């Protein structure tokens, strides 16, 4: 992937949480191979408390574009320590440190524009734009949102709006943001989102040849058909999804534990009904992480799941880790979201029986890091690898399917899947302002008014 990115000619990159599934040696090797700077202003050495010194990693860079001096700062996922296994590093928001960087860039380096590359997520970006002054644009990621209309966030200290943009994931869109800058401030902008329709354009010959070369050693295995699915397997879903239900069920079946829990990631292309290949599995379970076994008491599990529900609906976006509910198997939850924390879970059953607070339950997981919890008992690292277990299961079963089901229901008995505020999100992102079926591109433009606010409209 790095070789491919080098040929494509990136100016800079900020890694995301999934990049840190690699161990430190692998990460440092990948960073060193990159022909462009890796930007992270919020990765610190845990022991020394200073910014971590890693190959090719910098907090920011300064570039010249069309006569403008532009600072680009990187912020990786602020909750990295909670979702990966790198105790040697700490992350967080680092508001004071980043503010000091920007103050230096504005006062000493005399930059005209400050752009933040962020992997904190859309809503976290909007809050960060309020906390740190003198940012002009935040180019976001992590939550895989398509902001058809840039989000304008007013920073009181700076006295002007900050533009927050994000163009989805999985190559669905290419985003372009054109800015008019005067006296160190954005005075007008035009955002264009270009949907990528692979059948409508010829691939770049050099890139296509390089992909074939890099893929060649794995091509036969990746394209090997291992079974069929009769239902669509997809990952996106606030409370549950068909692909995650399948993987959690597979993990429990293959490990024979009482409960299985897996990460609720947003990545992964949907698998349509029909043949399933090895590559399809790696698209939804890409990390070759080991499976762990451990035990928790019923009361501990109840507290853990109550916290997980609260994390999904919390209004404190900077405290939210991920934003989707854990994916699980062997356990059923009844939830009343109208109740306050910690009284939202109304009922928990394990294998059909009420949860016993005093009983120890066996649990299997990968990519969730429950094995690091001080409450975990009898922790065992197995020789099983997450995606390998899914592949083996599908090969054995040949024909599979997965549905949304009653493993998670509300207090009325209705299956919980997507968040009820989905349509409100479409309004916030500007999706409702465009005809998605007929638009070739999605344009939105605006300008800065006398009060420092950015106004705009779709084109």
Explain this structure.
The protein is an alpha/beta fold and 459 residues long. The protein has two domains: 2-199 and 424-458, 4-Layer Sandwich (Purple Acid Phosphatase, chain A, domain 2); 222-420, 5'-nucleotidase,  domain 2. 25% of the residues lie in helices and 29% in strands. It has twelve helices and 26 strands. It has helices spanning 2-8, 24-33, 80-83, 95-107, 122-131, 205-215, 219-222, 242-255, 278-284, 298-313, 386-397, 422-429, and strands spanning 38-39, 44-45, 57-58, 60-65, 68-75, 89-90, 113-118, 137-139, 151-155, 160-165, 173-182, 185-195, 225-229, 259-262, 274-277, 290-297, 327-329, 331-335, 345-350, 353-354, 360-366, 377-385, 399-400, 408-410, 442-448, 454-458. The strands form seven sheets. The chain has a six-stranded mixed sheet, with helices on one face. It has a five-stranded mixed sheet with strand order 17-14-21-16-22. It has a four-stranded antiparallel sheet with strand order 11-12-25-26, with no helix packed on it. A hairpin with a 2-residue loop joins strand 19 (345-350) and strand 20. Helix 8 (242-255) packs across helix 11 (386-397). The protein is globular and about 65 Å long. The model has no long low-confidence stretch (mean pLDDT 94).
Question: What is the total tally of β strands?
Answer: 26
Return residue spans where pLDDT drops below 50 for at least 5 consecutive residues: none
Secondary structure tally, helices = 12
Rg computed from alpha carbons, rounded to a whole number of angstroms: 23 Å
Question: What percentage of amino acids are in beta strands?
Answer: 25-35%
| CATH topology (fold) name of the largest domain | Purple Acid Phosphatase, chain A, domain 2
Number of domains: 2
Identify the CATH architecture of the largest domain: 4-Layer Sandwich
Distance between the termini: 36 Å
Rounded average pLDDT: 94
Helix percentage range = 25-40%
Overall spatial form: globular
Q: Could you say which structural class the secondary elements and strand pairing correspond to?
A: alpha/beta
The major beta sheet can be summarized as:
6 strands, mixed
């Amino acid at each position: 992937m790095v070789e491919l990115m080098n040929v494509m000619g990136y100016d800079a990159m900020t890694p995301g949480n999934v990049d840190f599934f690699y161990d430190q040696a692998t990460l440092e090797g990948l960073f060193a191979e990159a022909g462009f700077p890796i930007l992270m202003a919020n990765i610190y050495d845990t022991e020394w408390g200073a910014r971590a010194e890693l190959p090719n990693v910098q907090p920011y860079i300064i570039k010249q574009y069309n006569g403008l001096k532009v600072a680009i700062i990187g912020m990786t996922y602020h909750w990295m320590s909670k979702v990966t296994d790198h105790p040697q590093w700490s992350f967080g928001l680092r508001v004071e440190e980043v503010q000091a960087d920007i103050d230096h860039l504005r006062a000493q380096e005399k930059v005209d524009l400050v752009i933040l590359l962020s992997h904190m997520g859309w809503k976290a970006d909007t809050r960060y734009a309020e906390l740190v002054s003198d940012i002009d644009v935040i180019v976001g990621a992590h939550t895989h949102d398509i902001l058809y209309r840039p989000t304008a966030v007013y920073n009181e200290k700076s006295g002007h709006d900050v533009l927050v943009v994000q163009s989805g994931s999985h190559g669905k869109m290419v985003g372009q943001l054109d800015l008019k800058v005067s006296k160190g401030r954005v005075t007008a902008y035009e955002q264009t989102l270009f949907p990528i329709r692979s059948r409508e354009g010829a691939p770049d010959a050099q890139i296509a040849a390089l992909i074939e070369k890099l893929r060649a050693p794995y091509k036969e295995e990746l394209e090997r058909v291992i079974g069929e699915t009769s239902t669509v397997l997809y990952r996106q879903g606030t409370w549950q999804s068909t692909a995650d239900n399948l993987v959690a069920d597979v993990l429990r079946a293959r490990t024979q534990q009482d409960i299985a829990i897996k990460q609720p990631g947003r990545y992964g292309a949907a698998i349509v009904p029909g043949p399933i290949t090895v590559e399809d599995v790696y698209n939804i379970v890409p990390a070759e992480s080991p499976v762990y076994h451990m035990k928790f008491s019923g009361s501990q599990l109840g507290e853990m799941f109550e916290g997980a529900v609260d994390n999904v609906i919390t209004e404190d976006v900077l405290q939210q880790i991920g934003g989707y509910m854990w994916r699980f198997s062997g356990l059923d939850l009844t939830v009343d979201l109208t109740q306050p924390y910690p009284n939202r879970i109304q009922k928990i059953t394990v294998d059909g029986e009420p949860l016993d607070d005093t009983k120890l339950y066996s649990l299997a997981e990968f990519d969730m890091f429950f094995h690091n919890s001080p409450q975990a008992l009898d922790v065992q690292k197995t020789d099983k690898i997450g995606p390998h277990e899914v592949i083996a299961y599908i090969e054995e079963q040949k024909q599979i399917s997965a549905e949304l089901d009653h493993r998670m229901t509300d207090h009325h008995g209705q299956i919980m899947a997507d968040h009820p505020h989905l349509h409100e999100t479409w309004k916030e992102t500007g999706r409702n302002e465009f005809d998605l079926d007929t638009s070739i591109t999605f344009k939105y433009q605006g300008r800065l008014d006398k009060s420092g606010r950015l106004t705009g409209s779709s084109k």
